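Now for a chain:

_____
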Amino acid sequence: MTNGAPTSPPSALRRLDTANATALVDLAATFEDLQTVLRCCERLVQALAEPAATDGEPDDVMIEAVWTTALLSYARCFSAAEAGSSLTEDDVTSTVSSAEVLEWHKVLLQLRDHYADPALNPREQFSVGVTQNSDGSADGIGITSARQPLVDDLTVRQTGAIAYALSALVNDRITAQQQSVFSELKNRPQADLDALPLVEFVAPDADPG
């Protein structure tokens, strides 16, 4: 991108470590996380629908893995960043016209904590009891478990809707931040630019169409 517009591949790419460049990096990472949430939600909608169509059981391992990735990616967008480019609760309420959206956002963060807990099993709760024989004496130990329900279709779709709206907001911020970064550099002498460290890159293939 040059001044916000696509161009032919550049002859060189130089790394920037300014505050504006760091903010742009954070925005790009946030956008990628939101896109990951959307891809996860698409996979989950398909995975949850397939067993109903075939009278089979859902792949609970795959569903938990994809849902956990979605939750981790979503929550990371709201982590505190020095550059101030992380998302906020105000961003959520400004992009989704629903009275319950903020509560839903908070639920997603709580679910992230649940699935990412380093000590607790997120899918099943266990308990241990003593078994008794007919005269009431202890004769063994029993282990019981309570399986937690899988994420449902409505939850997935609501999460996807929030991520989609936030993606548009972040995309607009990326465009504005690109302009801000370029404004800092467009009049810099070539000698200053040549002093910046080179970044190795592979140019994308030209569009054959």
Q: What stands out?
A: The chain has a mean pLDDT of 85.
